[in-house]
C-alpha cells in the first residue's frame, strides 16, 4: 500500500460530518486513480496488439457503442450522461494518442528488424 492511499488529514476544527464526507471523497479519488491506472495498462496492451496487426489507433464504431452504453449506465445511476460522455471522450482521446505513439514505435521496430507485413 502506498502512503498516498490514506485519506488527507483534515483540520481538527471542522464538523465531523464534513470530515467523514471528505474521507469518503479521498477514498473514491484513490479508487479512481487505481482504476484509471489499470485501464491505461490494459489499453496500452491493446495499442501494441493493434499496431502489430496494422489496425488503426482509433475505433470510432466501438467508441459510439461505448458512449451509448455509458450514457445509459449514467442515466440509471443518477450521473449526468453529458458529463459521462465528456469524461469517456477525455480518456479515449488520451488512449488514442498513446496508440498513435505505440504504432510509430512498432513500425520503427519492424523497419529496424527488416520485417514486412
Ligand atoms: C482501446 C481501444 O482503442 C481506442 C480506445 C478506446 C477506449 O479507450 O475505450 C476505444 C476504442 C478505440 O478508439 C480499442 O480499440 O479497444
UniProtKB/TrEMBL annotation:
SMART domains: CM_2. Residues 12-103 form the Chorismate mutase domain. It is an enzyme of class 5 (isomerase). Keywords: Isomerase. GO terms for molecular function: chorismate mutase activity. It comes from Nanchangia anserum. This is Chorismate mutase. Its EC number is 5.4.99.5. InterPro entries: Chorismate_II_sf, Chorismate_mutase-related, CM_bact, CM_dom_sf, CM_II_prokaryot. GO terms for biological process: chorismate metabolic process; salicylic acid biosynthetic process.
Amino acid at each position: 500500500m502506498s502512503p498516498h492511499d490514506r485519506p488527507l488529514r483534515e483540520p481538527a476544527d471542522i464538523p465531523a460530518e464534513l470530515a467523514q464526507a471528505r474521507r469518503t471523497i479521498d477514498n473514491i479519488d484513490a479508487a479512481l486513480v487505481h482504476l484509471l491506472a489499470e485501464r491505461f495498462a490494459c489499453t496500452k496492451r491493446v495499442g501494441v496488439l493493434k499496431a502489430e496487426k496494422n489496425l488503426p489507433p482509433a475505433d470510432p464504431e466501438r467508441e459510439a457503442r461505448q458512449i451509448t452504453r455509458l450514457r445509459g449506465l449514467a442515466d440509471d445511476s443518477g450521473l449526468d450522461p453529458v458529463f459521462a460522455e465528456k469524461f469517456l471522450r477525455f480518456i479515449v482521446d488520451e488512449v488514442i494518442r498513446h496508440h498513435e505513439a505505440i504504432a510509430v514505435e512498432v513500425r520503427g521496430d519492424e523497419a529496424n528488424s527488416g520485417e514486412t507485413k
